[in-house]
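hey so u asked for the seq, here:
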Amino acid sequence: MWQSLAAALCLVLVLEGLMPFLAPRLWKRMLAEVSGMSDRQLRIAGLLSMLTGTACLYLIR
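ran it, C-alpha cells below
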C-alpha cells in the first residue's frame, strides 16, 4: 500500500509540473485569477476536484 501511495504522490508532482513547464505565462495568469477568487469559490473548486478524482479512481479500480 505504501508503494502505491508513493507512486500516486509522484504522479501528482509530475502532473503539477506540466503546466508551468509547458505554458509558464498561462500558468502565471491562472494563478493571478485564482488568487482573486473568494474562499468559498476555492473551497467549492477543491471539493469538485476531490469528488472528480475520487469518482475517476473508483471507475479505474
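The chain has three helices and no strands. The helical segments are 2-22, 24-35, 39-60.
lmk if thats what u needed
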